[in-house]
């Protein structure tokens, strides 16, 4: 079953509030706001599959020691029980937004091994004061501005800028191209993300993976329905109840790729 912030079980909300409390304690008077975006904000959160997506705004840059403590915090709490993807940006980075955007701190499970190694060896290559940029932030901020939830702090409209549609499109096309290459290895995630991008390019609609799958069933050629039904079932139940033939995935990929390419011309 998929949840929104309003409908999710108490366990999920308590986990989010725990993260809020602990991050705010580390950030202290630098804290501006704590915001949820992604599937939990848009109503497609699957406790067995989804990340909890968070943005935090600060008044000014973080000190290096604070960044190290944040890394340790998320190594401890992410995945226990829900994985977390979080980015922290200053008001200056948001106000003078550039694409790809600089950021103060980022954590996702993809970064776990590098943080574990660096904190263990005290090398801090990814935790120092160098300027880091993330092309995905244009998408995260757009989604937050349109469909995000302010858990605590200043209202979303007072913090997050309007991102040019060209930046948002560039941001989501990065993941789109990755999914074109990896659909056979990761059919559920890639199929739903390909539809999300196609839906935005086609109609300007920002959707969750679940919403994109439902739209695909209603809007894409009927011969794709069997594949989409399998994808949606596997996604909803977080299992591999249905297997996929390479031929059907390549056919679906090529159809979406051609449609998006035509719309972008």
Automatic annotation (TrEMBL):
GO MF terms, alphabetically ordered: adenylyltransferase activity; ATP binding
Record GO biological process: response to antibiotic
CDD domains linked to this entry: NT_KNTase_like
Keywords: Antibiotic resistance, ATP-binding, Nucleotide-binding, Nucleotidyltransferase, Transferase
Keyword Nucleotidyltransferase belongs to the record: yes
Reactions this protein catalyses: spectinomycin + ATP = 9-O-adenylylspectinomycin + diphosphate
Location of the Adenylyltransferase AadA C-terminal domain: 158-258
Lineage top rank: taxon: Bacteria
InterPro entries per record: AadA/Aad9, AadA_C, NT_sf, Polymerase_NTP_transf_dom
Stored Gene3D superfamilies: Beta Polymerase, domain 2
Record bears the keyword Nucleotide-binding: yes
Domain Polymerase nucleotidyl transferase: 32-95
Protein name: Spectinomycin 9-adenylyltransferase
Species of provenance: Neobacillus notoginsengisoli
